[in-house]
Amino acid sequence: MTTVQAYVDFAVRETRGVSPAYERLALAVSRDEELLALLDTLPPAKRQPNLLFGVVRWLGGPVDDPAAFRDYLLSHWQVIEPQVRVRATQTNEVGRCAVLLPVLAALPQPLALLEVGASAGLNLYPDRYAYRYGDHQIGSGEPVLECAASGLEPPVRVPQVVWRAGLDLNPLDVTDPDDVSWLDALIWPEHAHRRTRLRAAAAVAAADPPLLVRGDLVDDLPALAARAPAGATLVVFHTSVLYQVPPPRREAFVQLVSELPGHWIANEAPTVLPYDGLPDPPSDALHNVVALDGRPLAWARGHGQAMTWFG
């Protein structure tokens, strides 16, 4: 995919109707030859809109006006470029727990959770949050995660988690203000509710920090999985992570995780982790596929705000 196509796709399929500011920015960048030339000096994985916009927000630059954003980018590129090169889109969106919960709750309890691409590990606490599927509420914690779900009988209780661990090339620390500020910068400008959720989830994690291991999703996964306690169902899961992994490593990971004991939950775009015989998605907006042990079960929006169950 070219840089132009990436920014148009981000505008039309991800941000349209969800973040007007980022839709405007992405479309403006897609038409600006000078900005595109700058971006094309970066490695392909570093040209993505979420990363660029997040870095500009983190540095205090403007993202609500395309002209001001353009001026800032051109005048501050020497500061922006090194940050784009060293940072990654580690969006730790706890709303995604709402699309994982129906699968987690149906597995043999208790659970030992291992998240690949865990960022700060906020998605390792599905048992500590509360959920609302329409009029149906589950759990009593904070934050309350809302999800518009269709074709689904919501679970009646949260899962029982007895062990939680995360694997990441660059794990983030929820007790480090700089790390939390980066997570905040990755949240889209208009999404105050997601910032509130981030703060509430960070407080949960900071009170009982998870085991986060710096490592590779292929080389270091077996050793970490072996640390899960006996008597608990091991669940390896990941959400919107594999698009950052080169296809050969992605294939090696799929082979490896398929052979581990326990279960594997994936929540990834179908272009990243393809499946045969998928039904049509609910709309043209970008949807992930929630799958258990390689079997697709549901379409899910990227921040967990909606899911359509077909499994």
In short:
The protein has helices at 3-15, 20-30, 33-39, 49-58, 66-86, 97-106, 177-185, 192-207, 221-225, 247-259; strands at 111-116, 130-133, 136-138, 144-146, 148-150, 161-168, 211-214, 233-239, 263-268, 287-292, 295-301, 306-309.
Description:
The protein has 311 residues and is α/β, with parallel strands linked by helices. The protein has 2 domains: 84 residues, no CATH class; 216 residues, Rossmann fold, CATH 3.40.50. Helices cover 37% and strands 20% of the residues. The protein has 10 helices and 12 strands. A hairpin with a 2-residue loop joins strand 2 and strand 3. Helix 1 runs antiparallel to helix 2. It is globular, with a radius of gyration of 19 Å. The protein starts with a helix and ends with a strand. The mean pLDDT is 94.
Give the biggest beta sheet. 9 strands, mixed
- What is the highest CATH level, the class of the largest domain? Alpha Beta
Number of helices: 10
Head-to-tail CA distance between termini: 31 Å
Mean pLDDT: 94
- Low-confidence sequence ranges: none
Total number of beta strands: 12
Number of domains: 2
CATH arch. level architecture of the largest domain: 3-Layer(aba) Sandwich
Strand content: 15-25%
- Report the structural category: alpha/beta
**Shape type:** globular
The SSE order reads: HHHHHHEEEEEEHHEHEHEEEE
**Rg, Cα atoms, Å:** 19 Å
**Helix content percent band:** 25-40%
Spatial sequence of strands, sheet with the most strands: 5-12-11-10-9-8-1-6-7
User: In CATH terms, what is the fold-level topology of the largest domain?
Assistant: Rossmann fold
